[in-house]
């Protein structure tokens, strides 16, 4: 069932789980993710980043997810990840997305607040929750690499959350995007942020974070963890390995099926490690 983001947050709270957010790119990743949720009988987010909307429009993704969800029974919210512009936000809501992130973390503090404020005003009118980001997350994100380490400043948290009215706060506590750098979470900082924030927290860069650290973060009001690279690797390696074995592999149907199965397996492992271990 495709559900509203607020409803999913309530579901996660009632179950006492960390909601995973899996990034999709295309049909097969989408199928793999939704099958994983179904297999584990657990809900969560399916997300697409603003950058990926160059390949698939919001409407294409929303239609795809809705079609895949017709036979699904666990609650899933369709989330815009790292929303880059107000235009993207509007297009996603018009297409039927049920949860939004606006990422204005690269802007100076006051401008970040302003951009989030107007997004919150818009999204709340439609009853849709907004995730915002404070501090910058290092590493590779689609087409750009952020090298600077800009951890979330504790002193900014309460003011940011209060002024913006955001519903979820993405933090930078040593977590990194991609799988090239090994993340080392700063738990004392996370604990301080959790004290200051009146809204629950989000961890980006889930791929590569040791699972015991993700479970530990749950104790500090982290309710959502994003996974992208991990599933993309499971997907791409399926094709790469088959091609390495046999350069005359043309059975795209069979390989796509294998790729979906490999993505589903990773989704199941992640859900299991994060919430059931
Ligand atoms: O927003 C997306 C996630 O933060 C993805 O991070 O590719 O390191 O799992 P990841
Ligand atoms: Zn991210």
From TrEMBL:
It comes from Vagococcus allomyrinae. This is Class II aldolase. The active site is at residue 81. Zn(2+) 1 binds at residues 82, 177, 204. Zn(2+) 2 binds at residues 103, 133. The keyword Transferase does not apply. One of its GO terms (biological process) is carbohydrate metabolic process. CDD domains: TBP_aldolase_IIB. It comes from the Bacteria. Its cofactor is Zn(2+). PANTHER family: D-TAGATOSE-1,6-BISPHOSPHATE ALDOLASE (PTHR30304), D-TAGATOSE-1,6-BISPHOSPHATE ALDOLASE SUBUNIT GATY-RELATED (PTHR30304:SF0). The keyword Metal-binding applies.
């Amino acid at each position: 069932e495709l559900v509203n983001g607020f409803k999913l947050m309530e579901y996660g709270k009632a179950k006492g789980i960390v909601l995973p957010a899996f990034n999709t790119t295309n049909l097969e990743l989408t199928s793999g993710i939704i099958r994983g949720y179904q297999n584990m009988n657990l809900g969560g987010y399916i997300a697409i980043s603003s950058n990926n909307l160059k390949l698939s429009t919001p409407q294409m993704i929303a239609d795809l997810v809705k079609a895949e969800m017709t036979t699904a029974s666990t609650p899933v919210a369709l989330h815009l990840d790292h929303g880059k512009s107000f235009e993207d936000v509007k297009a996603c809501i018009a297409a039927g997305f049920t949860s939004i992130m606006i990422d204005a973390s690269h802007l100076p503090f006051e401008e970040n607040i302003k951009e989030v404020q107007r997004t919150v005003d818009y999204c709340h009118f439609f009853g849709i929750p907004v995730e915002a980001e404070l501090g910058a997350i290092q590493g590779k994100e689609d087409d750009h690499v952020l090298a600077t380490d800009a951890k979330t400043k504790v002193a900014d948290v309460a003011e940011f959350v209060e002024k913006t009215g955001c519903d979820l706060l993405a933090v930078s506590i040593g977590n990194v995007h991609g799988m090239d750098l090994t993340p080392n979470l700063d738990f004392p900082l996370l604990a301080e942020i959790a004290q200051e924030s009146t809204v629950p927290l989000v961890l980006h860069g889930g791929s590569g974070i040791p699972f015991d650290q993700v479970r530990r973060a749950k104790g500090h009001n982290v309710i959502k963890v994003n996974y992208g690279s991990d599933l993309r690797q499971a997907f791409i390696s399926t094709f790469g390995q088959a091609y390495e074995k046999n350069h005359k592999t043309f059975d795209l149907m069979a390989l796509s099926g294998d790729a979906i199965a490999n993505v589903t397996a990773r989704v199941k492992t992640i859900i299991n490690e994060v919430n059931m271990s």
